[in-house]
Design a protein that fits this description.
Elements lengths: L4 E5 L4 H22 L7 H6 L7 E2 L2 H16 L9 H13 L5 H8 L7 E4 L4 E4 L12 H15 L5 E5 L2 E4 L9 E8 L5 E8 L3 E6 L4 E4 L2 E4 L2 E2 L4 E2 L4 E7 L2 H14 L1 H10 L3 E6 L6 E4 L8
Antiparallel strand pairs: 1-5, 2-4, 3-4, 5-6, 6-9, 7-8, 9-14, 10-11, 12-13, 14-15, 15-16
Helix pairs in contact: 1-6, 6-7, 7-8
Amino acid sequence: MGVDFHLKFYAPNRPEAERIAKAAYARVEELNGIFSDYDPGSELSRLGRAPVGESIAVSPELFDILQRAQVLARDTRGAFDVTAGPSVRFWRQARKRGQMPRVEELQAAQKRVGYQQLSLNAVNRTVSLRAANLQLDLGGIAKGYAVDEAMAVLKGNGIARAYVAADSDLLTSGPPPDKVGWKIELRNVDEFGNLYPRTVFLKHVALSTSGDTEQFVEINGRRYSHIVDPRTGIGLTSRIQATVMAADSVVADSHATAVCVLGKQAGLQFADRRQLQSLVLELAGDRPQVTPSRAWKVWE
């Protein structure tokens, strides 16, 4: 999935720890073979090449993640959309060249984007395409799904105190011995607008961060993020970062992406409607600002 996975957990002895870690990493590798949009032989890639209108039976994992993605796509009116692969790939090339894409090229890519292009049948666990050669991209949800599955392997092997992370997505179970939680640092802003790392201690919760504050390209004096808005096919320019806490990582991962793409105002409204714990960091103005959703808790 293009990122390293990290496990921290407490086991009875080293041989057991190594056996369990190997099982967890094997599960992540198995999911990569299903979800990867880089591997032309992955199940996801093969699905995108299926004939239009044909019902394709897919694995439980692929159906589950697509079903979750489609629900979020409808809830955000396309701000989260796993069919955005053509625009994502197109924008990657534009970033590499340091040039804005031509309008006609962008329009051609956008014609192949739209969550309505996927039709799911939950009874038969099949997926059918409404357009040819869809390029599906699970970048905003697959890491979270894999983090959850890695933690499930740990719990299935009797591990009660663990931390699983993949890039900016992490999930915790019980805390380390004699600790209140796993030590995590969040970017925060003090009363003077200075950024500083705020330490929180988490247990039995997932945390994910998405944003356009780190990876970007500057074209004609304007910063464009590596994160693409599926509705426009263009990298974000809002310079915000969204952090979401949830019971599981797949929700935290996908919803952090959705809040970021929606932008501060619409993103926080979305979070409030769903009683979602979200924190939005803005860097575009004169002074950085942090705004929590109504459900955000004070984590110490």
